[in-house]
């Protein structure tokens, strides 16, 4: 079946109309003429699995990454970046029912500060698109930057010298599992974390990465296919640092941090701009990304986070920056009196706000809410629930994830507007 890509859907797939069918085709651009040979059904959507672009659109650009189209990491490298931003603005505007500007990422390559690379018998790289059992072998990752190539070359030298067993994904066997690379984009500090199953490493292992500021060995003692584990040992610095404007954050292998440092600066500035009053509650506070930035600007901040280790890191970050901000362990649904805060910041996981928290907000009626979301669909659901008493004062997209369909959204809600 042959057809023309009419548009991109919200997931970044090209939509081709063939008769009464709409087929969604990855790695295509509006105007492409495609030949679709096979497709599969996924949640009522037909997704092409075997296709060919027979006449490329004039709107395409040449992808930078040689693995683009097979690697599952990026979906939109063939779309000009300006058009990617327009696509995300159109998506957010349609979902939220209002015009939404998307602020571009200051960097569109070399912007990611973390990549999790699988060390498998099929390849050292990322999952092949559409699979969990296969991997695409890579030399480096353009969205991370040049240092990824250096780390992967060192890893291959180590494997060549010591011949440890690699991860057989289907069988869930093998010693080496993942290598996680993290970099402070504004500090230049580099961390390498090797994740293995039970076993032993040669004493010379860290010598292969002597240019890194921090080298970790983590052991995954569970049957789960994950890129983290219990810390077995580290060499060099316990942390690397990242800096957003005048705030320094400590980065540990097991701590979450926004993956695009350049756009994270835009994000924390936007949140600070939207906060009203002097007393702020930072819910889902993580390592204190927002709370400490606000504390540095004179706000009185309390943070609540379910992960005890993240809370420990947030309090260390507060101390490091000389900030008067207190973070404690707690669940979103168990917050006490929200009315005593001028602004409540929420940055929930992809599932959105807990229904109990929504009821608590509607009962306590804090004057302002700043909602930071990585999932526009659950954001819309939560805004509808809060719409009984709150109105959207502003909504802004921030492109934390160039070359993917994902976008961060910051919404300001006011009580009774």
From TrEMBL:
**Could you say which EC number(s) this protein's record lists?**
2.1.1.35
Which residues does the entry assign to the active site, renumbered to this chain? 374, 374 (nucleophile)
Keywords of the record, alphabetical order, are: 4Fe-4S, Iron, Iron-sulfur, Metal-binding, Methyltransferase, S-adenosyl-L-methionine, Transferase
Protein name per Swiss-Prot or TrEMBL: tRNA (Uracil(54)-C(5))-methyltransferase
- Signal sequence annotation: none
Q: Source species, please?
A: Thermococcus camini
Classification via InterPro entries: MeTrfase_TrmA_AS, MeTrfase_TrmA_CS, NA-bd_OB-fold, RUMT_ARLMC_TRAM_dom, SAM-dependent_MTases_sf, TRAM_dom, U5_MeTrfase_fam
GO molecular function term, any single one: tRNA (uracil(54)-C5)-methyltransferase activity, S-adenosyl methionine-dependent
Q: Which CDD domains does the entry mention?
A: AdoMet_MTases (cd02440)
């Amino acid at each position: 079946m042959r057809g023309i890509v009419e548009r991109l859907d919200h997931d970044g797939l090209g939509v081709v109309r063939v008769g009464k069918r709409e087929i969604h085709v990855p790695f295509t651009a509006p105007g492409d003429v495609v030949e679709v040979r096979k497709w599969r059904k996924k949640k009522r959507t037909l997704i092409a699995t075997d296709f060919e672009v027979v006449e490329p659109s004039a709107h395409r650009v040449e992808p930078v990454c040689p693995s683009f189209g097979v690697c599952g990491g990026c979906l939109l490298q063939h779309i000009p970046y300006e058009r990617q931003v327009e696509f995300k603005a159109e998506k957010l505007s349609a979902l939220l029912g209002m015009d939404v500007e998307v602020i571009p990422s200051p960097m569109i390559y070399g912007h990611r500060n973390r990549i999790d690379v699988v060390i498998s018998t099929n390849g050292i790289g990322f999952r092949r698109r559409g699979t969990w059992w296969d991997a695409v072998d890579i030399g480096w990752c353009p969205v991370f930057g040049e240092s990824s190539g250096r780390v992967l070359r060192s890893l291959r030298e180590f494997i060549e010298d010591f011949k440890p067993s690699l991860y057989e994904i289907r069988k869930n066997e093998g010693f080496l599992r993942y290598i996680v690379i993290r970099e402070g984009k504004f500090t230049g500090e580099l961390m390498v974390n090797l994740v293995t199953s039970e076993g032993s490493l040669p004493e010379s292992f860290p010598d292969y990465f002597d240019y890194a500021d921090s080298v970790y060995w983590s052991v995954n003692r569970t049957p789960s296919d994950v890129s983290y584990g219990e810390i077995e040992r580290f060499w060099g610095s316990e942390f690397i640092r990242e800096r957003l404007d005048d705030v320094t954050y400590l980065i540990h292998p097991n701590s979450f941090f926004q993956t695009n440092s350049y756009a994270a600066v835009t994000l924390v500035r936007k949140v600070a701009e939207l906060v009203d009053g002097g007393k702020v509650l930072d819910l889902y506070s993580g390592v204190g990304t927002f709370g400490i930035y606000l504390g540095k600007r004179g706000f009185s901040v309390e943070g609540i986070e379910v992960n005890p280790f993240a809370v420990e890191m947030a309090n260390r970050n507060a101390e490091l920056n000389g900030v008067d901000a207190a973070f404690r362990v707690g669940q979103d649904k168990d917050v006490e009196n929200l009315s005593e805060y001028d602004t409540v910041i929420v940055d929930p996981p992809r599932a959105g706000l807990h229904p109990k928290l929504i009821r608590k907000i509607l009962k306590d009626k804090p004057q302002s809410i700043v909602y930071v979301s990585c999932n526009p669909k659950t954001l819309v659901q939560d805004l509808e629930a809060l719409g009984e008493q709150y109105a959207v004062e502003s909504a802004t997209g921030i492109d934390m994830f160039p070359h993917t369909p994902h976008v961060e959204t910051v919404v300001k809600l006011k009580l009774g507007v």
